[in-house]
Amino acid sequence: MNKLIVSALFGSMVFAPLAMAAPGNGGKAGCMQGRGEFPQMQMMQELDLSDAQQAQVRDIMQQYRGKGAMKQQDQPKQQGQRGQAMYQQRMAIISSAKFDEAAAQALIAEQAERHQSMMVNHLHAQQQVYQILTPEQQQKYQQLHADRMEKHQRFMAKGQKKAQL
């Protein structure tokens, strides 16, 4: 089970940046269709935020983007270099005559740490945004989130049925 989780995490860490960097049709391709940069932003549009709340959300998102050590304009170049370095490490592990488990574990640990840090920052931003909502908006947010989770579960179940065929 742990190997499956690590494999899934590893795969998402390696291929997600490539998928995000791939040219699309105006940002409306793939699973992020119509969602914008943050999937939660679509839900924010459905909550009828006031102008003041919208400004606060923008400030939080800018703060979230600024959490990394890099400036926004340097990010694509740095991500590309980091992705290339990880790709080279991965290829060195794969192509070596003898499997180096320590190198594989180190690469996976580095990716997991980076992913964990990113997720903590993302959850922190989401929590801050949630706190600026009115109680009615919070209730609607929770309902929208539950609806999306139900839709996601149906999608995953459909995929599992196809995989069994």
UniProtKB/TrEMBL annotation:
Would you say which domain of life the source belongs to? Bacteria
Task: Note the coiled coil stretches, chain numbering.
Answer: none
InterPro entries on file? Cpx_auxiliary_protein, LTXXQ
Primary site of residence: periplasm
Question: Where does it reside?
Answer: Periplasm
Keywords tagged on the record:
Periplasm, Signal
User: Where does the secretion signal sit in this chain?
Assistant: 1-21
State the family it belongs to: Belongs to the CpxP/Spy family.
What protein name applies here? Stress adaptor protein CpxP
Q: Which organism is it from?
A: Agarivorans gilvus
